Each structure stands twice: as structure tokens, then as C-alpha cells.
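STRUCTURE:
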């Protein structure tokens, strides 16, 4: 979620550093308030990660598709999400998944999961240190999905998401400046006491080619490689309830995945492709695929759906 081309709001110039590229400066001047568009902190744009939330409040529509086979059960998931800013720092969102589950010798299952609604607040943005943080809470609404797919209980999930770019490293380490970390941690709190409380967290390590060429050194990469961000995401879920609840729900073992891939980031949208590698035997035995598209309504419709209702 929440992404744009790399634009600069501040830049500490050293004698060895090059000036801000003209196109980046022109974008900044053309988009007043762009520091709040997508997940941006200073010169850093944090792309939408595909296995957990990115740390910015923004206006966007996203569609992600994932498929994975675990011990003969294939799950295909189409995830749809829409986020809308109410003020520059506060936004609302809604999301849902369409799941199709197939396995040999059993009837296929398909349908919509529960509708999830939520709110997010931009806790801080530190431009010089390319740091950003967000607090959010969401609620998966009981009985709002398809029978057999959606649940008959609600789940409230408080969350903290963050990002930190390495653009404040000394010039002697300039080729590490395009690196960035992002992450999110949340806890699922079901209204049904027989269901487990789950702690979920994810982190990503990313290297921005646009940042490298715009703010470190022009290395001559042309389209489409000049807009690529190689990324590795890691996610994990673990039961934090009583042993009895964890055992009865089949959640005694932690599960997670390692997702290496690449994101192409443009001015109006981004496209991402990642492999989904099970982190342990409890997480599955086959590699899956994640494919995602995010549309930046901040830029596509900056004066209507892409703008906060209250400024």
C-alpha cells in the first residue's frame, strides 16, 4: 500500500553527493503535501509489501493473488483492499479475500472470507532519517463472509507498522543507502474464546534501484530495471493463547514464509511478484506464488478519491 516514485522533501548535501534530480524536484513541487502520499519518509518510498501492511496512511486500491499447495491442499486467494484518508494522518480501510480450496478426494470449497474494516493513524514521519510509523486496528466482521469460508465470530487486530531507510548512512557507505527495512506486528483477538489469539509479525529487506540511481549514483539502468526494488519478506504467526486452545485449534506450531521477489514501482501503480517459501514443515511443503498490483489513488485522482476529506 501507499507508494509513489522516489521524491525528496529534505536532503543533507555533502560535498560528494549529487543534487536532487530535476524530475524528483518537479514532482515534489507539483504535489503539495506529497510527504503524506503513500508510505514516504524524506527521499524514501516504501513499496506495498504483499504479506503484511506497509507503514503509511494513504488512498489506494490493491489486488493480490496467491496460490500455494501444502500437503495436497491447494489454496488460491484473491485479496482486495481499499484505503481512504479522512485527514492527512488518519484513514479508513476495508478488505476481503476470495478463497478457493481444492484437494484430492474432497469437495472443493470457495467463497468470500469475512469483510475486514479498519482505521490507521500516521504516528510519525522522520524525513531526515527516513523513518515512518503507523498504528492501526481492524475488525473482521462476524458472519460477513460465505458459509464455510467466513467465520461466525469477529476478530479485532491492533497493529504497529514501521519503515526505516538507510539514507542517513555516511557517504563512505553510500551504496548501502538504497537499503530499507519495513515491518509490522499485530495480534488477532477473536470474540470466540475457543479460538486462539495469534501473534503475527513480518519484516522486509529491500534495495531500491530508483533510490540508487537518483540519490547515490546513476549506474545506467534503463526501463524497466530502473524502477525495480528487489525485496525479501519474512512472516510468522504463532499462537499466544493457552496450550489447550492452541492445541485444539491446531496452532501449536509456528508458521511462516520467506518471500523473495521484486517490485516494480511507478508513478501511478506498482506491480510485485514473489515466491512464497514455507519457513518450516508446519508451514507447508511446496513453494507458492504471490502477485500483487497497487493503484495509487493519491496520484491517479489527486483532487477527489486521492485526497483527504478534511485537510
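SEQUENCE:
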Amino acid at each position: 500500500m501507499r507508494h509513489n516514485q522516489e521524491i525528496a522533501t529534505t536532503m543533507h548535501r555533502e560535498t560528494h553527493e549529487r543534487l536532487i534530480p530535476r524530475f524528483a524536484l518537479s514532482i515534489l513541487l507539483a504535489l503539495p503535501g506529497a510527504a503524506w502520499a503513500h508510505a514516504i519518509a524524506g527521499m524514501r518510498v516504501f513499496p506495498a509489501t504483499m504479506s503484511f501492511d506497509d507503514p503509511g496512511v494513504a488512498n489506494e486500491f490493491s489486488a493480490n493473488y496467491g496460490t500455494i499447495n501444502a500437503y495436497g491442499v491447494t489454496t488460491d486467494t484473491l485479496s482486495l483492499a481499499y484505503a481512504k484518508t479522512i485527514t492527512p494522518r488518519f484513514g479508513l480501510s476495508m478488505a476481503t479475500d476470495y478463497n478457493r480450496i481444492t484437494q484430492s478426494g474432497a469437495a472443493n470449497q470457495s467463497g468470500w472470507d469475512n469483510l475486514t474494516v479498519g482505521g490507521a493513524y500516521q504516528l510519525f514521519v522522520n524525513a531526515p532519517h527516513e523513518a515512518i510509523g503507523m498504528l492501526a486496528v481492524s475488525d473482521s466482521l462476524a458472519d460477513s463472509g460465505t458459509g464455510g469460508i467466513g467465520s461466525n465470530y469477529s476478530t479485532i487486530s491492533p497493529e504497529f507498522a514501521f519503515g526505516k531507510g538507510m539514507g542517513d548512512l555516511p557517504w563512505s557507505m553510500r551504496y548501502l543507502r538504497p537499503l530499507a527495512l519495513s515491518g509490522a506486528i499485530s495480534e488477532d483477538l477473536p470474540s470466540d474464546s475457543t479460538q486462539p489469539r495469534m501473534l503475527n509479525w513480518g519484516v522486509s529487506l529491500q534495495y531500491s534501484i530508483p533510490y540508487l540511481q537518483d540519490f547515490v549514483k546513476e549506474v545506467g539502468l534503463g526501463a524497466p530495471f530502473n524502477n525495480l526494488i528487489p525485496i525479501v519478506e519474512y512472516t510468522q504467526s504463532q499462537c499466544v493463547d493457552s496450550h489447550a486452545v492452541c492445541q485444539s485449534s491446531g496452532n501449536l506450531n509456528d508458521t511462516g514464509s520467506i518471500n523473495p521477489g521484486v517490485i516494480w514501482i511507478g508513478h501511478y501503480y506498482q506491480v510485485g511478484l514473489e515466491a512464497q517459501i514455507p519457513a518450516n514443515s508446519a508451514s507447508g511443503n511446496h513453494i507458492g506464488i504471490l502477485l500483487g498490483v497497487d493503484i495509487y489513488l493519491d496520484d491517479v485522482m489527486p483532487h477527489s478519491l486521492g485526497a483527504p476529506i478534511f485537510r
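REMARK: Helices lie at 22-30, 209-216, 243-248, 297-300.
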